[in-house]
Write a structure and sequence with these properties.
The complex is a heterodimer of chains A (347) and B (279). Helices cover 73% and strands 0% of the residues of chain A. Chain A has 17 helices and no strands. Chain B is of the alpha/beta class and 279 residues long. In chain B, strand 3 and strand 4 form a beta hairpin. Classes of the chains: A mainly alpha (347), B alpha/beta (279). Chain B: InterPro entries: DUF1980 (IPR015402), DUF1980_C (IPR048447). Chain B: It comes from Streptomyces griseofuscus.
């Protein structure tokens, strides 16, 4: 991604004159993405679509099933998220969010974090919405707080947690607190240390969706279409990675790690990243990991909705890779710390 | 051309979703039944979007030029302008197509082509449901502890129970109500590589096939000499296989089978429910 950024940055210098680069100049393509996509596409075209010979092996069948299950499960939420983001871009007045949110960015962060409770979806929906918020002029720090809190503290997820941990209200409270805390800390961390040059250039310039002389419906449709196609592609990539882990490592192996408390917290946090379980279901998975301490299971539920393989892929596609790896690393660290603190106090 | 390809991608994805939800029950292999309405809605939305995209003329260019020139509605004419130029670069960097119009939303993101795979897979070769392979590789999930205490067992014989209920009765019910009772359990067969007998198994989805859990009951003496083939759905009638102390975790979740009948795969194959016993 660094490479792409440089290229684009170099392009910006030239592009003071508002003319697109001449057709004859071939811009070097960002090969890592191209190559990765090509490789993944080649390998998975065979695996996902093929239907004969060694492809009937049960392992391949299980991989295809798990991969498709993640995609099918996520698509409705992705559609919801991209419809919302398209609508925000096209229909919401540009200054609405700046008027509603507190002027000071440091205050806007927790407000946006709490506002995340409104979006009743899982994590796939929140990435395009956060993206359109930034394009609508919301300070990135607040948008990121929203991005992290929306899948973790919404009513559907909290209800699922209550069902999965019956008679254990402390677990729900701990999940709510640790998730909100992580979202707010990440927002403030972005204010303190964040750098907009990690974001995609299109995002840096607050490119607004609605252009004059153009039907708003048209803007909505085109934005929705583009966002869905892009996010959908990254969803497939992430689902393939998660399915590979899911099938390659049997659950039985996991129980070997449940012994030491500290190791188990880190281990379940890592597992949440690799398994890419939807935030509406992760409470049930956490509940089934009975060999682990409550704090470790809390870490699983706090990290999971904020960082996982399909989210990393989605964020890299939406915000840029330079952003995605820094943000996801920092979020994992903060989320583990928040779970350890909250878990130590409440559970 | 690109417009048509984008539209094709959307339509294929939409049709794939509709095929597995409206025209068959295939979606139950992957997700829970409750997701059906939103899957159908998503399929319809994507299909409509694809159709509109195919017939829309302005989706691919033209407007890219009047946006900046007239200035954004928010008055940041120069900002909007720069934004557009950047958008153009981004689109090119992504797309590799040079010399076309520059609005970033008219290009197809290259990664979007990956959507072809699940779409075609859903339309043409929907992969099979999870079965014995997955069940054999997952450890026996610990069954949740029942805090309320146990109701007396109904007098029916054979008594239909889910695999989870049977495990709870064997390992947690101090009243030992299950002792000597003839029960009827349903599930699919998973071979036991290590020893005598085989497993009667259910795979239960929490949300989708990616977070499935397995419940296993070990079955002894299936009635015939050969254990049943993997993935066959069966109803097994029998009694608890005595070992350890009944009512504690030392008792194995195991069954001495008297009668094994093949059954059709239930519609709710991936829940832990029986039609007559609410889970």
């Amino acid at each position: 991604m660094e490479k792409t950024d440089e290229l684009v940055a170099a392009g910006e210098g030239v592009a003071v004159v508002p003319v697109p680069p001449p057709p004859s100049v071939r811009r070097p393509r960002p090969w890592p993405l191209g190559a990765a996509v090509l490789l993944a596409a080649g390998a998975s075209a065979v695996l996902l679509v093929g239907d004969s010979g060694w492809l009937d092996q049960p392992a391949v069948g299980a991989w295809r099933t798990v991969c498709l299950a993640i995609i099918v499960q996520a698509i409705p939420f992705l559609v919801l998220g991209t419809v919302l983001s398209g609508a925000i871009n096209a229909f919401v007045p540009a200054d609405l969010f700046t008027r509603v949110l507190p002027k000071r960015a440091a205050l806007a962060v927790p407000v946006a974090g709490v506002a995340g409770a409104i979006l009743p979806g899982c994590e796939c929906a929140s990435v395009p919405v956060a993206n359109s918020l930034i394009r609508r002029g919301v300070t990135p720090a607040a948008a990121f707080a929203f991005l992290l809190s929306a899948p973790a503290v919404n009513p559907v997820v909290l209800t699922a947690t209550a069902v999965a941990f019956p008679g254990n209200p402390a677990m729900i409270a701990a999940r709510l607190l640790a998730s909100l805390g992580t979202a707010a800390v990440m927002g403030w961390l972005w204010l303190w240390r964040g750098d907009e040059k990690w974001l995609r250039p299109a995002l840096r310039r607050r490119h607004t969706g609605h252009a004059h002389g153009h039907s708003r419906w048209q803007e909505f449709r085109i934005g929705f279409q583009y966002d869905f196609l892009q996010a959908g592609g990254f969803l497939v990539l992430g689902a393939m990675a998660a399915a590979t882990f899911n099938v390659a490592v049997p659950r039985a192996v996991l129980d070997a790690f449940s012994g030491t408390p500290w190791l188990s917290v880190l281990f379940l946090a890592g597992l949440a990243v690799l398994l890419a379980v939807c935030s509406e279901a992760d409470a049930f998975v956490a509940a089934s990991l009975t060999g682990f301490s409550p704090t470790a299971r809390l870490a699983f539920m706090v990290v999971g909705p904020m960082v996982d393989l399909k989210l990393i892929a989605l964020q890299a596609g939406t915000f840029g890779r330079a952003f995605a790896w820094r943000f996801c690393t920092a979020t994992t660290v903060v989320a583990v710390a928040a779970s350890a603190l909250t878990g130590g106090a409440l559970l | 051309m690109r417009r048509l390809l984008q539209s094709l991608l959307l339509k294929l994805t939409g049709l794939g979703l509709l095929r597995i939800t409206l025209f068959s029950d295939t979606y139950l292999r992957y997700v829970k039944p409750g997701l059906r309405p939103v899957l159908i809605a998503s399929g319809v939305v994507l299909l409509l979007l694809g159709i509109v995209a195919a017939f829309s003329r302005t989706g691919n260019g033209g407007h890219a030029h009047d946006g900046p020139a007239s200035g954004g509605p928010d008055g940041h004419a120069s900002d909007a302008h720069d934004g557009h130029t950047d958008g153009a670069h981004e689109a090119h960097a992504h797309d590799g197509h040079e010399g076309h119009d520059g609005h970033d939303h008219s290009a197809t993101p290259k990664i979007a082509w990956l959507l072809v795979l699940p779409a075609l897979s859903l339309l043409l070769f929907a992969p099979p449901a999870l079965g014995a392979y997955t069940a054999a590789r997952s450890g026996a999930e610990p069954v949740a502890v029942q805090k309320k205490g146990f109701e007396p067992l109904p007098a029916t014989s054979p008594l239909p129970l889910t695999l989870t209920e049977f495990t709870k009765r064997v390992q947690q019910d101090r009243s030992r109500a299950i002792q000597g009772r003839t029960v009827r359990l349903t599930g699919f067969a998973t071979p036991d590589a290590t020893g005598e007998g085989w497993y009667l198994t259910r795979i239960i989805f929490s949300c989708c096939a990616a977070d499935s859990q397995t419940v296993k009951i070990h079955v002894y003496g299936s009635g015939s000499a050969e254990p049943p083939a993997a993935d066959t759905w069966l109803a097994v009638t029998g009694t608890w296989h005595p070992a350890g102390t009944l009512g504690t975790t030392s008792a194995p979740a195991a069954l001495d089978a008297r009668l094994t009948t093949p059954i059709a795969q239930p519609i709710n194959a991936f829940t832990d429910d029986l039609p007559i016993t609410p889970g």
